[in-house]
Amino acid sequence: MTPTAIFGYGSLVDPESTGRTIGRPISGVLPARLPGWRRRWSLFRDNLREEKTFAIEPGGEVPPYVLGLNIEPLPGSGDGPNGVLIEVTDSELERLDIREMRYDRVDVTGLVEAGHEFERVITYTAKENHFCIEPLPGAVILRRYTSTVEAAFAALGEAELQTYLQTTDPHPVEVVDAVLIRDETPPGNPRRW
């Protein structure tokens, strides 16, 4: 079996969330960087038509789109975003594909800076039909998502949190409290965002 790792740079940094997806506790994550890439809020999900719908609290307004983190190649961008490497099996990777349904797998073996011995490192980047150069009108970011990601980086240490904040573009739209009002997600997806 070829040792494989995922480079998590957003919610996959949270061991509880990732563990829930792959079906086992996560331990021993390895901090890493991805030079030549950038992290920003350029993934969108149709909040009205896809597998789950959130309403803003209070008031119940249903925004048309929700933004999530994405990474994009950006040659010459320096050290790039930080994240973690997590060893996964092929079956665990298939579970992650279900969770990351709006993302494509990308092989970043040899690009990740970390002291590791993985033969293959993959990450996830937005599929073309879920990528937005600029936020779509009415888009929001879920506070629970941002809080989970920031807490996951903070758990790695203050330096990792500060690096995350410094290597992530600012929120381009309002960050809102929201409640899930429709849920048709496939098993293995976190249901909190």
Low-pLDDT parts are none
- Counting structural domains, the number is 1
Largest sheet: 5 strands, mixed
Question: Given the helix and strand composition, which structural class is it?
Answer: alpha+beta
Total DSSP E strands: 11
Primary descriptors:
193 residues, 4 helices, alpha+beta, five-stranded mixed β-sheet, Hypothetical upf0131 protein ytfp, two-stranded antiparallel ribbon, globular
Task: Please provide a written account of the structure.
By secondary structure, this protein is of the alpha+beta class. It has one domain (4-44, 67-170): Hypothetical upf0131 protein ytfp (Roll), CATH 3.10.490. Helix content is 21%, strand content 32%. It has four helices and eleven strands. The chain has helices at 15-22, 90-99, 143-155, 158-166; strands at residues 4-8, 30-33, 37-46, 52-56, 65-73, 82-88, 103-107, 120-126, 141-142, 175-176, 178-183. A five-stranded mixed β-sheet has the order 2-6-1-8-7. A two-stranded antiparallel sheet has the order 3-5. Helix 3 crosses helix 4 (158-166). The longest helix is centred in the last third of the chain and has 13 residues, at 143-155. The chain is globular. It starts with a strand and ends in a 10-residue tail after the last strand. The model has no long low-confidence stretch (mean pLDDT 94).
